[in-house]
Design goal:
Length: about 280
C-alpha cells in the first residue's frame, strides 16, 4: 500500500507569529515530517497566517496546531483576526459536542495558550516583570499522573520557555465547572514571592495547551542563547551560572530534545489513533 492509498490526515498550522521571525514554525514542520516518516502516514499540512493575513481554516482539517507569537494576548480583543480565530474554536467545539464519530483535535502553544485561557476565563493574564527565556523545569501537577501526552517525561521535565506574558492564579471553580485540568506549573522559586504560572492544560478530550514551547529544538535554542542580546537578557534574569547550565541542558538528550520528541508526538498519537478507529 502506498502512502497515498492510506487514510489522509489533514493538519492545519495556525501561525500566530504576525510575520515576526521565529524558530517555532520550523520546529512544528520538523516534528510533523519526522512523525509522518516514522509512522508512514499520508499526512499533509497547511499553514494559515492568522494575524498578519487574517487567514483561518474551516472544518476540513482533522488536527489543528496553533503557534506562539509576540505581543499582548489581551490587546487583540475585538480584532478581526481574533474574532475569526475564536469562531473557528467555537465551531470545532460544536463539532466535537455533536454525534459525529470523527472529532477534531487542537494543540495550543504559548500565545495561543494565553488566548484560550482568556476565552475560558481560567486565570489572570498579566505581563511579567521581565521576559522569561531559556531552558527551564516544568512541574507536573497531581492531575497529570495519567496524562498520555506527558507519557515518557520525568517530573519535572525541561522545556523552552519564551514569554513576556503569563497566566497566573488559576480560577479553580472555572476549571472544575468546565471539566478542565491544570497539568503543569512553573518551577518553584521560594526566594521570590510571585505566583507560579500555569504551564499546561487539558481543556477537554481533544484540546491540549502548553505555555512553554514543546516544538523547540536544542539547535534553534542554542543559536538564540548565543546571541549577545539574548545572553544579556537571560543573565540579567537568571544569572551567569543559570545561563551556562541552560547551555549544558541543551546537550542533554533527556531535557529539551526529549520534550520535543515526546509531547507533540504523543498528542498526535491520540489524534491519529482516533481517526484510524473510524
Amino acid at each position: 500500500m502506498t502512502q497515498t492509498d492510506k487514510q489522509p490526515i489533514k493538519l492545519a498550522i495556525l501561525d500566530l507569529y504576525d510575520g515576526v521571525e521565529n524558530e517555532g514554525m520550523r520546529g512544528f514542520r520538523e516534528i510533523l515530517q519526522r512523525y509522518k516518516d516514522k509512522n508512514d502516514l499520508n499526512l499533509t499540512y497547511e499553514v494559515f497566517d492568522v494575524r498578519q493575513k487574517v487567514e483561518v481554516p474551516g472544518l476540513e482539517f482533522d488536527i489543528y496546531i496553533s503557534s506562539g507569537g509576540p505581543g499582548s494576548p489581551i490587546d487583540s480583543e475585538g480584532t478581526e483576526w481574533e474574532k475569526k480565530y475564536f469562531r473557528l474554536i467555537d465551531s470545532l467545539e460544536d463539532h466535537n459536542l455533536s454525534n459525529t464519530q470523527q472529532k477534531k483535535y487542537g494543540f495550543f502553544v504559548c500565545h495561543a495558550f494565553q488566548l484560550m485561557c482568556r476565552k475560558y476565563r481560567l486565570g489572570d493574564i498579566n505581563m511579567r516583570k521581565s521576559a522569561s527565556f531559556g531552558v527551564l523545569p516544568v512541574h507536573q501537577t497531581h492531575a497529570a499522573k495519567n496524562e498520555p501526552v506527558f507519557e515518557g517525561l520525568a517530573d519535572p521535565f525541561y522545556s523552552v520557555d519564551s514569554r513576556l506574558w503569563q497566566v497566573i492564579n488559576p480560577n479553580e471553580k472555572r476549571f472544575v465547572d468546565m471539566g478542565m485540568q491544570l497539568l503543569a506549573i512553573e518551577k518553584e522559586r521560594p526566594h521570590i514571592d510571585l505566583p507560579r504560572a500555569l504551564m499546561a492544560i487539558r481543556f477537554n478530550d481533544y484540546f491540549f495547551a502548553t505555555q512553554f514551547h514543546p516544538e523547540a529544538d536544542a539547535i534553534g535554542v542554542r543559536t538564540l542563547l548565543l546571541k549577545d542580546e539574548k545572553k544579556k537578557e537571560v543573565v540579567q534574569e537568571h544569572g551567569l551560572d543559570k545561563y551556562n547550565e541552560m547551555l549544558e541542558h541543551l546537550e542533554d538528550p533527556d531535557k529539551v530534545t526529549l520534550t520535543q520528541n515526546t509531547i507533540i508526538p504523543n498528542f498526535l498519537d491520540q489524534a491519529v489513533l482516533s481517526l484510524q478507529e473510524i
